[in-house]
Amino acid sequence: MSEHCIFGEKFDIAVIGGGVVGCAVARRFTLSGAKVVLVEKAADILAGASKGNSAILHTGFDAPPGSVELRCMQAGYSEFLEIRERFGLPVQRTGAIVAAWDDEQLEKLGGIVGKAHKNGVADVERISRADILAREGEISGAVLGGVLVPGEFIIDPWSTPLGFMQQALANGARILRETELLSGRFDGGDWRLTTSKGELHARTVINCAGLFGDVVDQRMTGAAQFEIRPRKGQFVVFDKAAAKLLNTIILPVPTERTKGIVLTPTIFGNLLVGPTAEEQTDRSKATVEREALEQLIAKACEILPALADVAVTATYAGLRPATERPEYRIRYDSEKNLIVAGGIRSTGLTGALGIARHVEELYETNNEPGPRLNDPVWPVMPKLAEREARDWTRPGYGRIVCHCELVTQREVEAALSGPLPARDLGGLKRRTRAGMGRCQGFYCNAELAEMTRGRFAEPMDVPSDG
Amino acid sequence: MCRPMADIDVAIIGSGPAGISAALELRRLGVRKIVILEREREAGGVPRHCAHPPYGFWEFGRIMTGPAYARRLVRLAAQAGVEIRTLNTVLDLLPGGVLDVATPQGRVQLQPRRVMITTGARETPRSARLISGERPAGVINTGALQAYIHLHGMLPFRRPVIVGTELVSLSAVYDCRAHGVRPVAVIEQNSRATARWPLNLFPKLLGIPTLYHSEVVAIAGMPRVTSVLVRGAGADQKIACDGVLLTGKFLPEASLVRGSDLVLDPAAQGPAIDQFGRCSDPVYFAAGNVLRPVETAGWCFREGRRIARYVADDLAGRLAGPQGAAEIVCGDHVKFVVPQRLVPGGGAKHLEIRVRAAVQGRLRVLAGTNIIFEKNISALPERRILVPLRVLAEHGGDRFKVEIKS
After folding, report:
1. Pair A205, A191: CB distance under 8 Å
2. Superfamily the domain B127-248 falls into
3. Mean pLDDT by 10 residues, chain A (466 residues)
C-alpha cells in the first residue's frame, strides 16, 4: 500500500514520533485491535533520543518510589522479559553493582538498598569490597563496597523498539516517515492533522515526540504544558578486546541531578562508558566534545585500569528529552482525545512497554477497549548479539560486508527491504551493526554506499558531475 | 563442524604484498600446500585500490600502479600453485594453529602446520581520534576513499579537507585530483610534513594550501559536512568543505591477535615476535604491516619473503627454538621496537625502531647498564630507524633497552 492512501483513511490512533515510546505505543494499540498510524519526521525511526542510550534494562531499584516512572519501568521490565523470546530479542543477565569509591558514597549504600526494597526490588543487597573484587577481577582495588542489583540486564537498544514497530506493522499498523506534524485541529470528535505530506484523520492522538514533545503539544493545543530541556549525553565505546575485562554493569552512587556515569558491557560485546549530562537548548544537534570524551575515558580507566591499553571503537552523543520537572510528563486530555507521553528522559528503553500499557489504561478510562488480536504475528528480529549465532554462521549469506562486526550481505539486503527498510546509514547500522566496529567503515563504507544506492533519503555518495 | 582439516602446510591470513610474497617464497622453497585466506572478494590487499605508482620497483624492477601490482602478485601466486580462498574470514586464532574460519558455505576449522598472519594495517578512524563536533557522513579514511573511487566508481565528497601529510595523504591528494575532487586544505599538526621531500611539495604544487601546526578540532554539518574548525597558531578558522579525509595514523589490523592467546605488543600494536617473525605460540608467524604501523608495500613484500624462509626452515626442523629469548624494550623517546624478542641463532639483520615525536640525540642500546650500541640520530615519527641485531646477539643477555638521549 502506498503512503498516499493513508491520507484518505480514518485511524483510531495517530502516534506522533517513532522513538522507542512511540513504537511501543503503536504496538500496544495495534494488538488491542485499534487502527494505528505512526508519524515520524525523520527518514527513519529511532533517530532522536532513542538512538543513543546506555542499553540497560533497569529494575527501577533507584527510581522515585510511588512514581509513574517506577510503575512504567517495572511493567516494561516484566513485559520485555515475557515477550522477548518470541521476538528473538537478546538479554544478557549481567546484574549491576552500584560501586562506592569514597566514604561519603559508602554511607549512601544503605539508603540505596532501602529504596530498592521499598520499590519492590527485593534481591538488591550490599556487596563487600572483597566480593566485588572476586566477581570482577579487573576492577580497581580502590572500590570500597557496593550494592548488588542482580536484575539489571543489558539488551539490544535498537532491535527491541524495531521489533515493537515491526510487530505493529505486521498486524496492520501504518507508518509515515519523513513526515512532520505541522498542526492539529480537533473538531469535537476527531483530529485533523496537517502534516508535511498531507492531512491525516484520526480519532485520538498520542504525542510521543520525545525531544519535540512540547513543540508537538504546542502545535496540537496552542500551548505546551511542559518544556523540553534537552540534556546531552556523550558516550565512548571501547573495542571488543575490553569485553573480557568486565561482566557486570558498574553504576555510580547517584547524585540529585543525574544517575551518573555508567561503565557497562554491551550486548554487542563492547564496553561502554557514559553518559555525560549537559543541558543545552538545541534539540537535534548532539556533538561529541574531545574534552568530555577524554574525561569519560579517564573515568573508565579509573574503574577498570586495564582499559588504558584498549582502543576506542566509537564515540557518540544522544539527547534526552528532560523537562523542567524530573519526572515523566504523561497526561490524558479526554475532552480532546489527546494523550501526551512526554519527558521520557532516561529510562525510556526500559519503560516503553510499561508506558504503552499506562497510556492504554488512560485511554480506556474514556473509550471501550477494542477486541485484542487473537493471534498476532510476531516478527523475529535478526540476531545481532555477540553471544548469539549470528547470520554468518548459516551458509548462503553471500559475503561478509562488514568485517569488524561480521555483517553479511544477506543481513544488509534484508535491512534494506521489508515493511520497514532502513532509510539512512544510521538506520542500517541499527538494524545490522554494519560500520559500527573498530574500523568505523575503513573497509566497508564504500561497499555500503554502493549497496544502498537508491535506498536512502540522502545517498552516501555525491554525484560525480557537479 | 567437522574435525580440523590438517592437510595444509602453511595457511597465510591476508593476501596483501606480505602474504603473497610469503606464499611465493614458501612454494619456491618446496613447501607443498599453501593456502591464503582472504576475507575480501578479491585478493591483493590494499594495493588493489591505490591506483598510483610507485609499486613494484624492488620486486619486479619496474614501476607500476597499485592495482597492476596487486594483479601481478595474484597471478604469480596462481602460477606458483598457491591456493587463494577469497571470502574466507578467519574468526579466531586458536592455540596450536587451529583456525576458525567463516566461509559462505559454512564455518570450518583448519589446522595447518604453520600459520602466517599478514593482515596488514588500517588508518585510525574519526572516533579514536576523539575529534569533536557533529557526526555527519563524509568523514572517512583514505582506504574508504580509494574503495569508493577504484572499487565502486563513486565519490564520497567533492571538496574535502585532508588531515595528515603522510605518504598515504599524498596518495589521497593524487586520487582526489584525478577524479575531479578538489581538496580545500591539507591540515598537519606538526611543523613539517611527515612524508619526505620532495613528495611533501605535491599538495603545494597543486595549489592546495597546507596548514602546519594545525588541527581539525570540530566537524560541523548534518547529514553532510559543511565545515570544519581548524585550530592553528593564530585564531581558530572555519573552513567550508563537504567532507573530511582522515589520512594515516595507521594501526595494525591485529584484531585476531587481540582476541587470541598470542602476546600482543601494546607499543607496536601488533603481535610480539622474535627475529624470525615467530609469535608467542610458535606455530604462528607474522609479517608485514600487522607487525607495526606502517611500511611500504615493497618493504612488506621483502619482509614476507624473509619470514617465509624462517617458516620453511621451521617446517624442516632447522629453525632455532623459541627458548632462551631476551626481551627488547622501549626506553625514552622510543615508540616501539620490532622484533620484541631475540633468541639465539640468526634471523633478521635489523631491529626496527620508531620514535614518538621528532627528536635529535644519541640512540643507545643497553644491555643491563652497559651501552652496547650508540649513534647520533635526528629522527622523525613514522620513519624507520634500523639497528643491527648482530650487536645484541653478540653481546648476549636477557634484556635490552633501546633509548634516545636528547
Report:
1. yes
2. FAD/NAD(P)-binding domain (3.50.50.60)
3. 79 98 98 98 97 95 96 98 98 98 96 98 98 98 98 98 98 98 96 97 98 98 97 96 95 82 97 96 96 98 95 96 95 97 95 98 93 95 94 96 97 97 97 96 95 96 78
Phi/psi zone of residue A418: left (φ > 0), alpha (ψ -120 to 50 degrees), beta?
Answer: left
Whether B98 contacts B111, CB under 8 Å: yes
Put simply, the chain A residues between 419 and 448 with a CB less than 8 A from any chain B CB are 424-425, 438-443, 445-447
Q: Per the CB < 8 Å rule, is A449 touching B156?
A: yes
In order of their start, the domains of chain A are 3-52+158-227+325-364 (3.50.50.60), 93-153+229-320 (3.30.9.10), 391-451 (no CATH)
Q: Which residue has the cell 510487530?
A: A167
Helical H runs in A95-223?
103-118, 129-135, 159-170, 213-221
Kindly state the average pLDDT of the residues B197-208. Answer: 79
Confidence of residue B198 (pLDDT cuts 50, 70, 90): confident
Chain A neighbors of B41, CB-CB under 8 A: 399
Could you tell me where in chain B the CATH 3.50.50.60 domains are found? 1-123+250-322, 127-248
How far is the alpha carbon of A383 from chain B, nearest alpha carbon, in Å?
17
Q: Give exposure, B394-404, as e/b (b: 16+ Cβ within 10 Å).
A: eeeeeebbbbb
User: Which of 3.30.1330.10, 1.20.120.680, 3.50.50.60, 1.20.1050.80 would CATH assign to domain B1-123+250-322?
Assistant: 3.50.50.60
Q: How far is B155 from chain A (nearest CA, A)?
A: 5
